[in-house]
């Protein structure tokens, strides 16, 4: 067994910056050559701990920013005015990109990957609740109306 520090998220093994023990063959033949991990020497562990500390501070800043956004989003109802085809479908579609642009009008700047639309796009008029998930337990819903 050899002690390593992961440099990338590896499914069924761990997340970036995790310090763990793996079989030496797995580490030396796969993880280290593919730059997924490094050997956990004392100096590398100190560097890793400092990186984790900095990452935690950045996440705390993001969480505070996203909490402010959640309060703003709760009071917003975005309306899209779209031309309709004869079969009650809209001409074109509403995607994450359009929703992101509308939120920017309210000074809310979030990445598209934080917006979750059930079927990736919206093609019918109506009222929708769009999930915006910032972190595991930090999410809200945005009300959208398409006329």
Topology (elements, then pairings):
Blueprint: E1 2-6, E2 19-22, H1 24-31, E3 37-39, H2 42-74, E4 77-80, H3 96-105, E5 115-116, E6 126-135, E7 138-146
Question: What brief labels describe this structure?
Answer:
single chain; 147 residues; alpha+beta; Ribosomal Protein L9, domain 1; Ribosomal Protein L9, domain 2; 2 domains; four-stranded mixed β-sheet; three-stranded antiparallel β-sheet; 3 helices; 7 strands; elongated
Describe the structure in your own words.
This protein starts with a strand and ends with a strand. The longest helix is centred in the middle third of the chain and has 33 residues, at 42-74. It has helices at residues 24-31, 42-74, 96-105, and strands spanning 2-6, 19-22, 37-39, 77-80, 115-116, 126-135, 138-146. The chain folds into two domains: 2-63, Ribosomal Protein L9, domain 1 (3-Layer(aba) Sandwich); 65-146, Ribosomal Protein L9, domain 2. It has 147 residues and is of the alpha+beta class. A four-stranded mixed beta sheet has the order 4-7-6-5. Strands 2-1-3 form a three-stranded antiparallel beta sheet. The chain contains three helices and seven strands; from the N terminus they run E-E-H-E-H-E-H-E-E-E.
